[in-house]
Amino acid sequence: MEDARKKELSTIANEVRKGIVTAVHSAKSGHPGGSLSAADILTYLYFEKMHIDPKAPKDPDRDRFVLSKGHIAPALYSVLANRGYFPVEDLTTLRHTGSYLQGHPDMKHIPGVDMSSGSLGQGLSAAVGMALAAKLDGKTYRVYAMCGDGEIEEGQIWEASMFAAARKLDNLTVIIDNNNLQIDGSIEEVCSPYPIADKFEAFGFHVICIDGHDLDAIDAAFTETEGITGKPVAIVAKTTKGKGVSFMEDQCGWHGKAPNDEEYAQAMKDLEVTA
């Protein structure tokens, strides 16, 4: 990736992180940790890779994205807002009574959301269905789904994966946000899904392992996916929970907690330095 474009995407990702922290602080609830860890990949997808148009969010030929770990809605909303689907100012209404920006993605009310999600383990099945539909309809759009590393402890993830490989859905890319932490602690302590890459490979996927904060690595991985035929792709992205905010990084306590006013000020200060 050219340095100028990489710098541009990095700046956008930083704005996305500011939007995440601002939204969760305003809501006084939400999930900042996993939202921040996913910001770089989501920014890359929506600003570089996916064939989408904010002016035509229901274009039948658009690429699709399913946020299977729907609790990191602040990340998706911030990316969508920065991409032009709705005003960035609306992020401050997250989880407020009457706001269309609910605690989890809602495809009926939020422009750019391709699938409602929130119950962990279910989003990947929806993405698999979308990818199969594209094949049956002779369409060329691609489907991307993001799962959490804690989420893949759910059995439905593996049923969907088995089906995707059996149907040779090479238009499907699954991204695992491997920040190593879930609500109760590290994923090894709760119910280890490791080795993640080996499991997806055993289920018939082409697997790519990357640093989920390295834009060059992200770009190379998603470019590689387009040359894979006959099998779905899994990108296992090693990330840092709470990325960009000093006191949130690698702390499972920030899985689902909002910063107070003092913490919010510090978080925004951290992100100004990052920029």
Mean pLDDT across all amino acids = 97
Shape: globular
Contiguous runs where pLDDT drops below 50 for at least 5 residues: none
Major sheet: 5 strands, parallel
Sequence of secondary-structure elements? HHEHHEHEEEHHEHEH
Relative helix content: 40-55%
Strand-residue fraction? 5-15%
Oligomer: single chain
* Class per helix and strand makeup: alpha/beta
Number of helices: 9
Alpha-carbon Rg, integer: 17 Å
User: What is the total tally of β strands?
Assistant: 7
Instruction: For the largest sheet, list the strands in their spatial order.
Output: 1-2-3-7-6
What report would you give on this structure?
The mean pLDDT is 97. α5 (155-166) links the parallel β2 and β3. It is built from nine helices and seven strands, in the order ααβααβαβββααβαβα. It is globular, with a radius of gyration of 17 Å. 50% of the residues are buried. The protein is of the alpha/beta class and 275 residues long. The strands form two sheets. The chain has a five-stranded parallel β-sheet with strand order 1-2-3-7-6, sandwiched between helices. Strands 4-5 form a two-stranded antiparallel ribbon.
